[in-house]
Amino acid sequence: MKERIVFLDWLRVLACLMVILVHTTEPFYLGGEGTLITCEANAVWSTLIDSAIRSAVPLFVLTSSYLLFPVKGDTRAFLKRRFTRVGIPFLFWLLFYAFVPAIGSSLSDYNFAENLKRLLLNFSDAGGHLWFLYMFLGVYLIMPVLSPWVEKISKRGEEWFLALWLLATLLPYLRRIALEVYGLSEVWGEASWNEFGILYYFNGFIGYVMMGHYFKKYVPELNWKKTLSLALPLWIVGYAIVAGGFWYLMPKEFPINESIDLAKDMETTWTYCSFGVVMTTVAYFLIARKFTAVGWVYQHLIMPLSQLSYGIYLVHLFILGVVFGMVSNWFSALDPWISTPLIIPCSALLTFILSALIIKLISYLPGHRYLIG
To answer: Most exposed: 107, 163, 312, 348, by fewest CB within 10 Å?
Structure first.
């Protein structure tokens, strides 16, 4: 028990459930030609729910950074452990999603030859959530490079880095403004022939890596009053930016059935490394630090689920479709204003439970570490 950082287990389980909630919300604004919103109720509920959980992926990165960064000991040993723990299961599930149709789907939906071709350079369509693992492995690769520097830099120096990174999290908004004002989305040195703007090297998930270290080294444990006095304003303002931007960019005449480009545009304030999402991420992290109880719930529920969380993430998309369809049928007679906010959490919770049971069964197999981490 002493070897575990208790609040990270709580945070890992929360982030895993949030990811599944994101994926159970998607059918209410994605589909058809790419962007499909059938009614105002689905538009409102998608905005309200999904905007609150865009912090899921950043929380995973913060958790790993807090636990592993800066890297101690031999770089080769660190990378070997990480790539064995994460990389080998990733390769297995990359192949799995390419060649095994998800539960409830049809063989006619699968083009095995095309999936094999895609694997040479990327994941297959059915395994879209595996984008996260490419990013995560990249984070592991950069950690040993940054570690000697972060151990020598001062607190002020680290704050300057984070300040520049926070400035870079405004880039999605600035690009959108530039597109409306000038007709071009490039800002601060970016151009059609050059994507490397002035803040390019301060952009992306590297900021969450640095933030995890900063919290661990410089932010002391706060009492509940101070935690909430910081977390609540951060979450409220961040949520207003994230949800407000999505709603503002959404057409208001329903049904909407347009190309995927519209959804990508609407998600401008939903991007993981944008300012509003950063604010909500910090809020969740501050509150999670207060969860340090090691009673029955932690020992028999949270810690075991945390240990299974990587596997849950890997497998959940395989069963989500059939679970979502089943739960949707349960509430199909209800008005969308009532059914949609029931379908999303019920589908996510049931998918989470079934995924955990599947991964728990796999954990009894010999060599399960190479399948589920």
So the answer is: 107
